[in-house]
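pinning this so it doesn't scroll away 📌
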Amino acid sequence: MKRFLFIILASSLIAGGCGKTQEAKKEPEPEKSVEADAAKEPQKEAWWEREHEVYEPADLPRELTEDEKDLMKKPGEFSGDQYDEQAAIEKLKELPDNLTAEQYADAILKLTAEDYHEDVQELIKFDPTIESTGSRPDEEIEEPTVNGVHYAILLDASGSMNAQNKGGTRMEEAKSAIMSFIDVLPKDSTVSLRVYGHEGTGSDADKERSCASTETLYNGANEAGKVKAALDQVQPAGWTPIGKAIAETRNDIPEDAGSAIVYVVSDGIETCEGDPVKEAQKLAAEGIEPIINIIGFQVDNEAQQLLQEVAKAGNGEFTLANSKQDVEKYWKEEYQRLMDAWENWRNEGLKEVQAKQQELLKKADSLGQAVMKKSDLEFKHAEALQIALSKEGIQEDYDITSKVWSLLYDRQQMAWNYGYKTSTAAWQDAYEGGNKVWQEIYHEGNNKWQEYYHKQ
């Protein structure tokens, strides 16, 4: 009996001991999965899957077309002089064999695409405008032909103008010459006639009155009849207040005059203590910058010197005249000067326009050629890699590789045609624009030359 109990007890102890051992033993940790860890890390995008980087041009005059957007892609790793066929093929060997033809073509372009962006931007910004920078003679020598030109004539009516000359008195010849001048002035110009020294006499007793006398007898449109009627009133009388006449002629020039030319007809020097040089300087400093030309009518050496100084101060010229014929000769010389100036302006303008036109034509052609040459080079490199697809066992499906070639060829044709058509249009615009400006300058110069030729 006792033995039986011992056996049972021992068995229980053994059973109890086994249970504790199992409780103390740790459960083995599950093995980590390599695939699971890889899934947690972000997958690096393969080079052929990345989006093309593109240039973002600024300050363009218009939106880009779809073709232009395509040509704004940044160049491939093996573009231009960087092309290394074997290295490029090694890159292609990284491609999976389940890509579509479009994906293969895109991958090849990621390696071989040329850089078109600067040429495309220049073609978009191409400005065919051609302008001549030469100043027209009307600005250069103060003889504009537009509305707003004013001719101010100052006539000396001092007593000495009553002296006899070959064709009558000095006054009579001066009046005749002025009328000859009026007849050939531009019809849209305005004219003023101011006389000075026309009151009183040449006596000392009348000096104050005579020196204060200067009067505008006519100011208005270029109407010969009205100017003649005003001239008919003038009779030689007193002293010679040239300075006062020049000072007050600013009142004769319309406020809206674009320019003015002042002609002083005198047979002597200032005799009224005025300062014609100072007054000429003041007048020349006005906003319209008038020119003061002086016609000295039978003046002596002293008077010549003074009148030359007055003309110089007024940015004009002094001309000595001894008769009506001399005065008329002066006007003819003025017109000849204008004829020469317009002829020179025309010739210089034509030369300038032609040079600018050639420069633009060359630029348009150069830009187009650059795009076309790059498209040819790109296709040459891309086609070599397309051939390598099957040759190197990268992709042996004929239908796919054939379509890849077509896609690359279409890209080449798009780029080539863009360069050709866009540059041709720019070239044509520059050619036609240059011809138009050339014709305008040619006809304007010729017409102005003819105008002054007939006025002679």
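📌 and the second one:
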Amino acid sequence: MPVSDDLSGIPTSLPSPLIGDWNKVILGVLSHAASTGPDLNQVLASAPDFALGQAIRGLSCLLLGRAEMVAVAEQAYAAAVSGAPATMREIAFVHALGDWLNGRPTRAAARLQVILNLNPRDALAMKMVQAIHFVMGRPKEMRASVEGVLHAWADHPARGYLLGCHAFTLEETGDYAAAERTGRAGVALAPDDAWGLHAVAHVYDMTGQARAGLDWLTGREASWAHCNNFRFHVWWHRALMHLDLGQYDAALAHYDADIRAEKTDDYRDIANAASLLSRLELEGVSVGDRWEELAVLAERRATDGCLAFADLHYMLALCGGARDEAAVALIARMQSTPRSAGEAQAVISHPGLHIAQGLHAFSGGEYSSAWIHLRAGRADLQSIGGSHAQRDVFDRITIEAALRGGYMDAAEGLIHDRMARRAGMADGYATARLALIGSARAQAV
């Protein structure tokens, strides 16, 4: 079987004339480029039996967390299995897709990790391992994977993207100084690496340096302009920095002009929007009718049942938009999700259900009930996936439930625990809540 090497020097079963197009797909995956889907479609139009291309198509569909994309992933899997003879590495990617379709995304990541161990310069395997572990809330595994291949990337043409991935894992595991250094080095090598750029933004978020974060992002807009909907997420980070500085009008301006520039129903876009509006409302800011379009989209997507992370942000939108009947239906659907249905479904069952019930109770002013449910889900919150910055909205609502329910000592403990995970730093939120607790105690004397 004739093979051609891709940009990592990895043999593929593609004809040589298509390798350039395939390398564009790999670089697009690494840089979150909007062109990746069309580029992949072009490759598959020329080589529909290219097993690796079909596997990437299927895995990418599953990462979208949309029920209708499962069928597309199944079609890709069938095409890959019945396609032309493939290399052993490509067959492993196909099996990884099969693992996830069978409800075992962590097994899919483990299978791809074996491929990466055999050839640590495999950029595609590296990025897909990162993506799957991220969705499943496994930052330690993300860090171990990327650090296991660093030695082999000194002269890799995509080294900047690897450093961006490493920077994010360093940040998510609390090594903030190293994360900032590594992220800056990665962006210097790959200026279009929005993932690495946003890893540095995460550092500033987690260490209470909103002003430095704005300085970092301002003037680098070209680094994420080429992105798919990930660009909305980078704008979200910028809005969070304005929020922390009390610049609420600026945060809302980014919401309207950038975060919801396109009214998509991608769960990640709804998450950006719903979590920002929730944070603003916790600060007493009126967000007008902005909940309405989110609630409409969330109600349509609430039957997906793919990821707890998505479900919980749908719940934020439904509560914000006063869609109580739909919120109750979402909780009922989560209650009926069997833990045995798959790894992601087990997370929906717990801690997802507890957190959803807590969010619903909080929106109804039932703060004691909200506190009980949110506290029950908090210890396992990591498992819903996403980043610390994304999950922080649930931490904030848990703290607010304790405060409004009169559990001042518990709220103070949560704030200090939150600070401990943020390099011991108090951001604007923590500073304001500790002051509120101090004032309430002084008045009670």
